[in-house]
């Protein structure tokens, strides 16, 4: 038969579940979900509830079962692996295009276009130089036309040298940016390696969602820097393949 202690045990289970749910809700509210760049940092969490084993007892009518209350089953993240993968794939495309051309006009193609298609272009300077020669050919003794040829030639040479110098500087700056990006990629890969080790060592733990959030956040940042493909393995560990189309 049911005694007072069984009832107290059932009530205690319910109170413990409510406390856990309150803690999870507080964590959802306290942890920022996005960083300064708009990347998802911490996912929302949900408590999954099961039913604890019933108490079996007998009476005049035979065996009967009495519920012993709810039981926290697990805490899961409110995230979708398929959507995360799609976001990472598209992030690679966005990151690539932003390097070439972006709204701040700071992309490589933006800068090249600003150099070669400025107020005065090589094509325009060459046309001016050619026109000066054409005019001089009809009156080669004209000192003014000779001076125009010289001035047009000097202007073309100066513009050529100036654009070459700017393109050379852009090349150096781009090389430095590439080195910085490679360093960032290596740092994130090291973080993922550390997270993988922690996940393997945490097998059987009740809640590894913080590690999974850190894993996904690292993958989101990595996908902005380089094209990647991922494979989720044991205990939530991830294998990363770079440059796979």
Mean pLDDT: 84
Decide which structural class fits the backbone. Answer: alpha+beta
Helicity level: 55-70%
Low-confidence stretches: none
- Overall spatial form: rod-shaped
Overall radius of gyration? 34 Å
Q: Strands across the major sheet, in which order?
A: 1-4
Number of strands: 6
In percent terms, what proportion of residues is strand? 5-15%
Number of discrete helical segments: 6
> Which sheet architecture does the biggest sheet show?
2 strands, antiparallel
Distance between the first and last residues' Cα: 66 Å
Summarize the structure in words.
The protein has 6 helices and 6 strands, in the order αββββαααααββ. A hairpin with a 2-residue loop joins β2 and β3. α5 runs antiparallel to α6 (209-225). It is α+β, with helices and mostly antiparallel strands and 245 residues long. Helix content is 61%, strand content 14%. The protein has helices spanning 4-30, 81-100, 108-116, 122-138, 143-201, 209-225, and strands spanning 45-51, 55-59, 62-66, 70-77, 228-232, 238-242. It has a two-stranded antiparallel ribbon with strand order 1-4. Strands 2-3 form a two-stranded antiparallel sheet. A two-stranded antiparallel ribbon has the order 5-6. The relative contact order is 0.10. The radius of gyration is 34 Å and the shape is rod-shaped.
